[in-house]
Write a structure and sequence with these properties.
69% of the residues lie in helices and 3% in strands. The chain has 31 helices and eight strands. Strands 1-2 form a two-stranded antiparallel sheet. A two-stranded antiparallel ribbon has the order 3-4. Strands 5-8 form a two-stranded antiparallel sheet. The relative contact order is 0.11. It is globular, with a radius of gyration of 28 Å. It is mainly α.
């Protein structure tokens, strides 16, 4: 009994921290309408700043606490509010991009400032004082302080929301922001207060929980999963239920630690339990009925058949360029762009066409890599198709229970699924299921070899690179044909309005399961190709945090654009690897580039996507019957010089860039319109220029059509 109570005390102290963090999350969401995925990262940064002040600089603890909570956290909250203000009124994916960019960027920033290879720890508050004896159990002063702060936060929030004018403004802003402005209140002020308080509570939780865990950027940021679960218990709006949910999560974690049997299959379950509980809570609690989405949606580009085939051929030729010009070591690094491109392409039908948000695509790629590794140890060609099928089945398994979820709830469910895979499923040793032995990352990693295509064994990295380029080209062409098909149009209708789609007789279950399965199969293909490129992969390469930059770059490229796959691969394997090679000191800056792009997207700078302007500026040049072939001939000549070792890779790259810019300028000069007389307004026809019979026809037609 004493042990049971002792674990209960530990669970309640942890629950108090989750309650504080979760209440801040609920406060910002209900007031601003923005679900802050970076909420845990804000607490993580605050914990690191507190460590820097106390341990790094030797400040007294009281001064450091005041500096963090009364200076740093409020300013940080204002920065969050300012950065996320443009996302209000946007679609679910656009809102998530900014907060996910902040989450990913803050993790990279923390690793940049505080070396992750150096261990750090924080002492518990009042660690030098003896524990408090309650007769049956004892509690530390840190635990007592934590639970006391949770009670104070609950009381203070209740008073703020229901006994002050600011609280009334905050609650009214949730109901009708426009109406609040008409009453003379200031919705902007309510938002600022909400962000300051929300980040303040995240900072409090980060400082309180940091002494009990490792001071690691990713681990501290993902502790927010437990706070997410508490917030879902409160349906993102009810603070008392959020505190109740925190108690459930805290006690569950504590009792699993104490009473979970010693079994090689179960240690990961304790780590994944909060994410598993989050997934179950999302399925159990109601989140509102189907409704239309009051947001402006950008049209999905309609690719042409000829353009799609030309683009596919370009990808294959680009793969040949790389395979013949780069050495083995460089191909392992840069040739992986095609595998990344396939994984990124899986977002296009799912998020771009159907509007279904998923944060577990890289985890599904890991499923494909594992399946291919075990089914095709000698590179059997059918193992690649089987890996895609297995990944597709897993994707469908995610979609079926999550049918009733959408928007932020779907994002949370897929993130929870990714964490369950990362922390538990991928760590399992081999086991038997229905007499079949199943092994995942049994030895911590798996080896993959190139496929055997009917007697043609792909052994070298160059051959695998070309094969990956062909796979990306074929997958991209398939997505383009899907966009032009009836099913593609139905997916876009699903994105526009789930309620209208269901009302008109469309099957939400069938559509969502099919598109999830399709995108998961594509991701599984990309994971297998990535494993072939590296020859061996580990589970850490497919975790949730590693997949966030892919989501960001795809969104920046343009949701629904088939070229988003190649664009993501080029960015992910290009500048992010080239910059550290050229300038070693900028390695961390290169890693934060996807986050900066996501912030620019959320702020409206790249709202239309990067591919659209590129297509508008460059494709007419490629279609020019003189300039296009001339550019191709120059590139082929540079390729021949590189194969003859007349020039090196850097000279080839520089020559290709110069040739492309020159071709664009040449095309502009060829298509520049000839200067002519200034156009005369219609009101001055017959006065400023002679009247003719065609003018009468133009006016008659304009009157008839009402234009």
């Amino acid at each position: 009994m004493e042990q049971f109570l002792a674990f209960g005390i530990v669970g309640l102290s942890t629950a108090a921290i989750y309650a504080v963090i979760g209440s801040g999350l609920v406060l910002t969401y209900t007031t601003t309408g923005v679900f802050n995925f970076a909420h845990g990262a804000a607490g993580m940064i605050s914990a690191f700043v507190y460590w820097q002040m106390t341990t790094g600089w030797g400040w007294p603890v009281p001064i450091a606490v005041v500096a963090v909570l009364l200076v740093f956290a409020p300013l940080f909250g204002l920065v969050f509010g300012k950065a996320l203000a443009p996302t209000q009124g946007l679609g679910d994916a656009e809102k998530l991009v900014m907060t996910i960019a902040l989450l990913s960027g803050l993790i990279v920033l923390a690793r940049w400032v505080w070396d992750p290879n150096k261990s750090r720890s924080l002492p518990r508050f009042f660690a030098d004082k003896s524990s408090i004896d309650l007769g049956v159990v004892t509690i530390t002063w840190h635990q007592a302080l934590t639970m006391g702060i949770a009670v104070v936060v609950a009381v203070a929030l209740r008073i703020l929301l229901f006994r002050t004018r600011t609280g009334a403004e905050m609650r009214a802003t949730v109901d009708d922001r426009a109406l609040v402005g008409l009453t003379g209140a200031d919705p902007g002020r309510a938002n600022r207060v909400a962000w300051i308080l929300g980040i303040e509570l995240a900072a409090v939780g980060g400082i309180l929980i940091a002494p009990t865990v490792a001071l690691d950027a990713a681990q501290l940021s993902l502790l927010i999963v437990s706070a997410y679960t508490a917030a879902i218990f409160g349906r993102l709006r009810n603070l008392p239920m959020t505190f109740a949910g925190a108690v459930v999560v805290g006690l569950m974690e504590s009792y699993l630690t104490g009473y979970l049997p010693q079994n090689e299959y179960l240690p990961g379950l304790r780590l994944a339990a909060p994410a598993l509980l989050l997934f179950l809570a999302l399925l159990m609690f109601p989140h509102g009925r189907l409704r239309g989405r009051d947001r402006k949606l950008k049209p999905v580009p309609l690719p042409t058949i000829n353009g799609s085939m030309a683009f596919a051929a370009t990808i294959v030729v680009f793969g040949l360029f790389l395979a013949t010009m780069l050495g083995e070591a460089d191909l392992i690094t840069y040739g992986a762009m095609f595998a990344w491109g396939v994984i990124a392409l899986s977002y296009v039908p799912l998020l771009g066409f159907a509007g279904q948000i998923s944060l577990c695509q890289l985890s599904l790629a890991g499923v494909g890599a594992v399946a291919y590794s075990h089914l095709g140890p000698d590179g059997q060609w059918w193992a690649l198709l089987a890996a895609m099928a297995i990944a597709g089945v897993v994707g469908a398994v995610v979609a079926i229970p999550a049918l009733r979820l959408s928007g932020v709830y779907m994002a949370l469910a897929t993130a929870a699924f990714a964490v369950v895979l990362d922390r538990w499923i991928f760590t399992l040793p081999s086991f038997e299921l229905l007499g079949v032995r199943i092994a995942l990352f049994d030895q911590g990693s798996v080896s993959l070899v190139g496929p055997d295509l009917f007697g043609w064994k792909l052994n070298t990295t160059a051959e695998i690179t070309v094969f990956a380029a062909v796979c990306l080209a074929v997958a991209g062409l398939g997505i383009a044909l899907l966009r032009r098909s009836r099913f593609g149009r139905r997916l876009i209708a699903l994105r526009d309005s789930e309620a209208a789609y269901a009302t008109l007789g469309g099957s939400l279950l069938a559509a969502r399961v099919l598109v999830f399965a399709l995108s998961a199969a594509i991701a599984g293909l990309g994971g297998a190709l990535y494993g072939m490129q590296l020859q061996a992969v580990a589970p850490d390469q497919f975790n949730l945090v590693a997949g966030l930059p892919i989501f960001l770059i795809v969104t920046i490229a343009g949701l629904g654009a088939v070229g988003a796959g190649l664009f993501t691969g080029l960015v992910f394997a290009g500048p992010l690897n080239v910059i550290p090679v050229l300038w070693t000191g900028l390695q961390n800056l290169a890693q934060v580039l996807p986050s900066l792009g996501g912030i620019a997207f959320g702020g409206g700078v790249l709202r239309e996507g990067a591919i659209g302007p590129m297509r508008k500026d460059w494709f007419p040049m490629l279609r020019d019957r003189i300039v296009g072939p001339a550019l191709i001939l120059v590139l082929l000549a540079l390729w021949a010089l590189r194969l003859l070792d007349t020039i090196d890779g850097w000279m080839f790259t520089a020559g290709a860039v110069v040739a492309a810019i020159a071709a664009r300028l040449w095309h502009r000069a060829r298509t520049r319109p000839e200067p002519g007389p200034a156009e005369v307004p219609v009101e001055w026809w017959g006065i400023k220029r002679p009247w003719n019979s065609k003018d009468g026809e133009v006016l008659d037609r304009a009157v008839a059509t009402g234009s």
